[in-house]
Write a structure and sequence with these properties.
Blueprint lengths: L7 E5 L8 H13 L3 E8 L9 H9 L4 E4 L4 H10 L3 H12 L1
Parallel strand pairs: 1-2, 2-3
Helix pairs in contact: 3-4
């Protein structure tokens, strides 16, 4: 990466790491701290309810890396919100109310 602040890294994963979980978290942290906009999409499904490693998601969220699952119709708005630093739970609630 030559310009981390102009880079977006979207990890699509349930975070169940078959390898070294600590190394994965460290790499994501290092990218995030270098200025890369780092986002973790846990699942993309019609119901938007992912099965994922909650412990890893909590650690990433604590580092400032948004982790979420969503339905395909919500993805653009949630990605935009994550990139702008919005509270994704509030955004998801608002989007859900608007779309229902």
């Amino acid at each position: 990466m030559t310009e981390p602040r102009k880079t977006i890294f979207l990890l699509v994963s349930d975070l169940y790491e078959g390898g070294n979980r600590t190394a994965m978290i460290r790499r994501l942290r290092d990218m995030h701290e270098s200025g890369v906009r780092t986002i973790c999409l846990l699942a993309l499904s019609d119901d938007g309810l992912p099965v994922y490693d909650e412990e890893v998601a909590r650690k990433l969220s604590a580092l400032g890396i948004p982790c979420f699952g969503c339905s395909p119709d919500r993805l653009p708005e949630l990605i935009e919100g994550a990139l702008k630093g919005h509270d994704l739970q509030q955004l998801a609630s608002r989007i859900g109310k608007v779309r229902q």
